[in-house]
Amino acid sequence: MRAPDTDLPIILSGITAKAGAVTILDNITQTIAAGPPTVLIGPNGAGKTTLLRVIMGLVAPDAGSVSWGSHNDPSQVRRAIVFQRPVMLRRSAAANIAYALGAAGVPRAQQPQRIADLLALVGLNGLSARPARRLSGGEQQRLALARALARDPAVLLLDETTASLDPAATKSIEDIIRAVAQRGVKVVMSTHDLGQARRLGGDVMLMHRGRVIEHGPAADFFAQPKTEQARQFIAGELLV
After folding, report:
1. Is the pLDDT of residue 6 over 80?
2. Domain count of the chain?
3. Model pTM greater than 0.90?
């Protein structure tokens, strides 16, 4: 798992997305480079989920474009997304991953070893035969990560994957994110947890009302925010 130079950076050019008369994303132009995770933060309704869906190709913007390194066809880019509430198939944990491997075109003979490797990566190797829907919330999120990684993505998009989890489950997910990032996969994730943004972020993108208010290295963002909105958000004040 590694993001080749040809897949990055992700260049967002004038991205605008609307729902009826409501503007969800407002002329976003940003570059998401290779390296540690890019973390999207901001209040509810800021546009974080929609931006991830646009990057994934699930939502077509009303204006603007997304380009990927030297690729002319974004469909050639290996990318995967995990949502806050992933849907589990009515089968075992191992069979959930097998389904994802089959969809990714992995030969059946290679699947048992890939399944074992992915279950080990997410700490579920002892639960391979358990029905996925009987796993805990944290275990289901880890299984969802394993399914996403079955696609061997260059870019992994995560939408509030720890929002409803307890601290222990959150730590398990964060450990997986670190391991994946260290393997060279570019992680782009949204979170409401500023502590998590500090722990995981290589760079931070603050969004508000569909716009990017500030984007820069995480250490600089938290130590010396450049905008009043960023200072307010870091201080726990409401952005209105």
Report:
1. no
2. 1
3. yes
